Structure formats: C-alpha cells, structure tokens
Amino acid sequence: MKVSFNELQGLCRKAFGGIGFEEGDAADAADMVAWMQCHGFNGVDQLNRGLDFLLAEDPEALPRVIYQDGDLAVLDGQGQSVLRSISLATELGYAKARARGLSVVKIRRCHNRQLIMGYLARLAGRGINISAFWRNAQEPLTEQVVGFRAGHATPEMRVYSVREVPEENEPNDGITLVMANHVELLPSLGADHDLDLLAHHSESELLACRQRALQDGIEVDDAIWSRLKTLAHRLLVEASEASRSGAGSGVNDND
Amino acid sequence: MMNHEVALTPLSLRPADEVMRMERLGSLHACRLSFVRTLVRQMGRQRWQISRVRFDLNAEGHGTAVYRLQTPHGRYHGVMFAQPLEDERRSDRVIAEAWDVTFGMVEGEVDDGLLAQMAANVPLQEAGRQHPRVLVLSRANKSLRNFAHFVDALAAGEQPDPAWLTRVGYLYRTTAVYGNGKFGIADFARLIDNPDFRRPFSAQMAGVYLLRHFSIEQVEHLAACRSPETARPLATELRRYLGIGNSTGLGMAPFLINHPQLIAQWITQRETALALALRRMPEEGDRERMIALTRRAMQHLAETVTEDREQSERNAASVAALPDVLTWLASVPLEPDLWSQLVEWGARTLPLEAQELINTLLIELYPETVDALEDQMGVDENLDLEPDMPLMRLRQLIETHYGWALSHDYQSAEGAYWFWYRSAEKEEPRLGVRHAEPGAEKEMSIAIGPRVAHSHRAICDFLEEAPRAKVVDFLLERPRHKEIVRRVQSLVKAPYGDIHANLWHRDMKPMHLLRAKLAFFGASRFDPKSDRWVRITLFQGAPLVEELNAEPQDLADFDDWSFPLEPRREGGAVRPQSLSGEVST
After folding, report:
1. Where does the source fall among the domains of life (chain B) (predicted)?
2. Which of B339, B345, B427, B495 could make an SS bond with B16 (beta carbons 3.0 to 4.6 A apart)?
3. What is the domain range of residue B186?
4. pTM, 2 dp
C-alpha cells in the first residue's frame, strides 16, 4: 500500500508509544524510520526485522557511559536497538564537539545501527559536520560510512566490503561517530585500502529519492502496516457508553 | 504616517503570561491575518479563476461535481460526491461512517482513472486509501432545516429568509478537513515550494471555499429540478451571507499542544500586527474607520445566535460594552498614542472578548502595515535539544518562563481531575475523570504543566549532586525528561508556544483551546454545543466565485467582509443592511 511521509511518521510514533517508548524516544525513533524510508533505505523493513527484538528489550537497560573526557566518550548500548534512547549518545558527541571543536563517540553493543542516520540528519541540520561508520558482522564483512555536511540534513554514504578481515576478537556491533565544528567529514578512500566499494549514495541521489517519496507516496507492505497499527492500538482506550460522552458532542446532529 | 523614530524602536509585544492564558485565547476573534481572509485576498490579487467542469447531479442533488481552480502557478480541482444519507446516520463526530457530501481537492488534472479512484475512496474518508495528488480530503453534513427552507423558497420563486442564515450560517458544515498526508493524501512538505498553498491550512480553506460554491449551485439545482417554471437563483446578498459550517470537538486540542512552534508563530504574527497598529498615529479617517468597524462588529455580535448560555452572555457583554467604546472613540482627542490609550482603557473596563475585538479591529485598520505578516505564518517545526547547556541554566529558564507550570497543584483531586486520551473508536480524543473512568494509564501527555513541574523537580535533585552538570549529563541518567527539556529549550525562544494552564484541572474549559485555533482559521458565529464541542461558520460574507472570476479592481473592497450583517428582505429583493439598521438603497 501507499502511505504518506506524515502518515508513516505518525503511525510509527504511536507504535513506539505502544511498545512503551517514552514520548521523546517514540518521536525520535519514528523520525528515524520515516527518514530512512523516504531516503530509500527501507527503514520500515529494518524496523520490522527488529520489532520482536524491541518488544523483548528491557526498557530500563539504557545506554551507559563507560568512559568520557572532554573530547571522547565510549558508551555501552546494552545490546539495544538504536531506536531506543541512542539519540542521547549522539547528543553527547554534539555537546563535546561544540565545546572542543571535534569529538569522537564510540557506542558499543547496539542493533539496527543504520537507522541512526535518521537522527544524525537532525544533528547535522543543527550545524555540525558528522561522520559515522560501522561494520556488519555477516560475510562478507562490510563497512558503511556516512557523512553529513554541517547544515545539510542529507548525507553522502558509501558501503564497502572488507577484503582482509582483521584478526581480532572485537565484535562488530558498535558505531563510531566523529563530529566537528569546522571540518567536513565526508566519506573518502585512498587507493591502497583493502576495501571494495559496493555502493555509493550521493547527497543529490538521496534528495531526489526523498522528493519522489513526497510526490508519489511511500510503498509499505500491508502486513507490516497492520502490525504497526496493532502496536499503536495499545495506546487507545476501549470505548464505553461513558467514554462516548467524554467527547462532549450531542447525540443528534440533524438541524 | 509612520514616525520613523518610532518605527526603529523595537516592538513591544504583550507578555506570554497575558496572551497565553486560556480565557484570553478563548476570547480571540478572527482577524485579517486569519487564514480565510489571507486566502481570499490572495485569490483576488492573483486573479484566481474557478469554473465548473462537471455537474452530474440527479433530481435529488446526488452525484458528482468537479470544479477547476486556476491560479497563475497551477491548476487544481475540487471533486465533490453528494450521496443519500439516512437521518439516523448523520453524525458530525469522527466516528461517523457516511456523510451528505465528501470531497477532495486535487493538484493537477482529474482524468477518468483518478476520478474512479476518488469515487471509490473519497466517500469512505478515513476508511479509504486516498491518492497522493489529493491535497485536501473532507466531508460535510447538511443543515437539514436550511436546506429544506432554501429549496422550498427558491422553487417557489422566492428568496429564503435571511434570518435562517443568521441562526445557522450555512447549508453544509464540515466535520473534518484533512491535509498533510492523512490517509495517503499529499504531505504538506510537498507544498513548501508551491506559491499557492505553502501557507498553513490555505489548501484546506480553498477546499472549503469550493464546497461553499457547490452548496449554492446544488441548492439552486434542486429548486430548478423541483419547479423548473418558477425556480429562481439565490440572491447575491444571500449567497454572500452563506458560509460553510464546521463542527469541531476535542481533536483540535492535541494539535495545539503538539505544534507549539507553529502556534507560537501564529500568535507572534498577530501580536506583532497589534503592536504595529498600536504605534501608528491615527488620522481622523482612521478614527472614523475604527468607529465604523466597531459598529459593524457590534451589530454582528448582536445578531449572533447561540443556545449556549455562557457564550450568549459573553456576546451580550461585548454588545453592551461597545457603545462605551464608540463614545470613547468619538470623544477622546486625536493624540498620537490614541490606540494605546484605547487598549489601556479597554483593559480596565471591557470584558475579555471586547478587548480582543478591539485588538482585531485595530489590526484591520492598517492593511499596508500588517498584511506582509501573513507570509510568516509557517515555521520549520523542530524541538531541538541543546545538550551542552548548563543544567543550572535550564533550571533558571524553567523558573523564569514556566512559573505558571510550577504554580499549580497537580496532586489535588481538583488539580488532576481530567485525563486526556484517545478512544479505540477512530482514535477520537476524549476527556475522562481520573480515578473514576478507565484508561488513565493510556493518558495522552498533552498537559504540559505537570510534566514541566516533574522535570523541574528531577533537575533540582540532580543539581544537588552535580551542580556543574550539562543537560546531556542529566538526560543520560534520566532520559524520560528529554521531550520536556527540549520543548522548554525551544519554546523559551518562541514564548507563545505553550498554553499557560493546567489542562488536568477540573475548571479547565477545552472550548478556549478550540476557539483559539478556529479564530486563526477565520471562524465566526461561535456556537458551543458543550464545553468541548463547537459549531462555527467560515467564509460567511466572503466574496463569491462570480465576483472573483470578474477580476476585482477594488481589492480593499473585495477584502472588506469581516463581521457580516444579516441582509434585509424587502418584497422580492434582498439588500445589504446598513450600519444604522436601515435598508441601504
């Protein structure tokens, strides 16, 4: 089925509320999913794949700061989806970059990582340069790099495959964020790296994708839509005779 | 003439703590910056043209009509579906499933394929899947009594009694006018570069204007079908006096709370207009115009009919107070600060609705000064966090700007009496009594006051342990406060964004919220049906399609339709009422 951007964002917000997200987190998560979807990154599919996981998460297990100083921070995402509360980890990076010119934030142990782009778009719109990258653990090992220019809410993105898998035991479940006040941090690759470019999404291509989504509507799978509606329904109060009077209308509108 | 020295001094706007009180918001009137006024001015200035391209109605008035709206920049079509409706199914509530008329306004052409898609979906409204080129989706129910009276009169070759339109100012009242992506229609973001409809709600108002024209043509069609020999068209004065109703409930309240930056923008423009008008040095002509406008508004309010006791009293209080305003205006020397004197005198002596009426009329006086503000009604809505703000600074901001929120008792039975929620029935917003009705655990968090007070307590506690903390340090520990923190941080820069009231309180009147939003739309004839349900009229007195199509030369006259008066029927003719109550010739 075709839906509008506003409709998708609105339903996601209600669905996240139904899952039990705090209001601000529900709004941010909905923005992330809708942003991803209208820029061609299948945000709804990603959400759908992560839904069972989200429903099983402990809402009290919040991102925890393991280390921080003026320039750096390392956080433990507690194995949760970036949709829940990860915005504050990125805000920490933003605050440090504002204060010191440049910041590095590592978020370990988190899921649905690509969705973070939706929130980074908002930070970049507030005037900060951002680069974010993460590696996916599946074979072949891939690395995604996304860069936002300050003031631009649309990024440039590249996806690489990693030829030589490093011999280390660190799991690939983290995100690295670099933010800078004055320096552009766009994806760029020298010739002699062990990386093969798999995909390149330019800012103009992603902007055009958004324009098409607004023009033609957004295609969403009926079953996923229905599932989101069921979750949103959790916030609704079943009707009763008493509740009907709570709308304050009369019983007859013939005049 | 504007004094240049004065013009350079910063504008002094009224404080938010005065403007954003519920009772004052609930006293607002439509003004020349209201959306219907702005739209009509734009249509006249840019020579918009409206034509009928299809009118397939049967003798009962049921069928399809299509109107073309041509602007210098684009072409749109209003597509109307009129259908039979049993009286017992006629409900203004969002839980209704059928209506007398459903319609959509489409960007671009309507070919057979799109028409078929719309015919299958528009009548279903929320239950349909609407096309992404539909900008506005709406439906309306008949005023049965007006409809019958109008058809009877016109079929008999007579004109309907104008008093019927004073009691109920329309043949149709809309029960929702959807825009911005609802049920698959176009997102508002798509209109951002559209010079015709980039202002908030302008597309919705254009859709309603087309419905008004359809209602005239449909009622004339019915009269002609019934009695082709004797039927007459509706007199021009009655056409003009015919508006479109709207029936509205609590659904408007969450919008006001969930779009604080937009509301702040609207109110800022209105307050700016008032401040600009106040510092104009009046000339004798301005004083005379103000007297004329006050007389007209007084007569309009005197004619306004509502069964609601409180609104009747408020109308009567304004009408009773306005002769003193006329006397004041006629007797006070013409000093440079006359308008400020008037407002200060009014604040001491006039009821709230009369005070705001005076403000509305002052804004009306100076089109050349205030009309440019209509282009500032839109805003990018982003409640952004300032994570690097010292937490102590945030605490100070709350205590400075949200004193109203900290002053309420949210623990008492009275102070926490209501809770707001959405019903499983089409998500209709409702109010329930806390501790007495089920559903409080699913409360919609639109009462901002208690949330700010809660966050303020948490911030004070955190500062005890970490006095040098930043906002982000606090939120990483207490993330549930994120939404309120960024709301406060954003709205201290847009101080007309939050309504200064406890929306849980037993004495809270949702009607005030509804009226505030409706006044910005341009509503008149406020007719509350309860403290949370209201009927209003839009476009009553507005220029007609044929007047628009004639490309008006006198745009000031074209724009001068606020506070319309009941026309007078004299023999077979209907004429405008003069301000003295006599019939003008």
Report:
1. Bacteria
2. B495
3. 46-233
4. 0.95
